Amino acid sequence: MDILLRILAPIGRALRRLFNIGIPLKVVLILLALAVGGVYGWTSSSMMRAMGGKSDYNEAKRYIEIKDIVEDNFIDSVNRASMGNSAAAAMISGLGDQWSSFMSADEYRTYQMSSANEYSGIGMSILKMPSGGFQITQVNPSSPAAWSGLGANMVIVAVDDVDVTGMDTDEVRTMIRSRLNRVFTLKIDGQKDPIKVDCSTTYVSPVTYKVDRTGAGIITIANFEAGSAEDTITAIETLLGQGVTGFVLDLRNNPGGLVGEIHTLLDYLLPQGELFYTATKNGRQDVYSSDNQCLKTNFRVIINNHTYGEAEVFANVMQEFQWAALVGEATSGKTRAQQTIELADGSAIRLSTKSYRTAGGRDISSEGGVVPDTIIYNTVTEAIDASVNDGNGTASYNDDAQLRESLRQLSMFS
Question: What is the mean pLDDT of residues 180-184?
Answer without folding.
Answer: 89
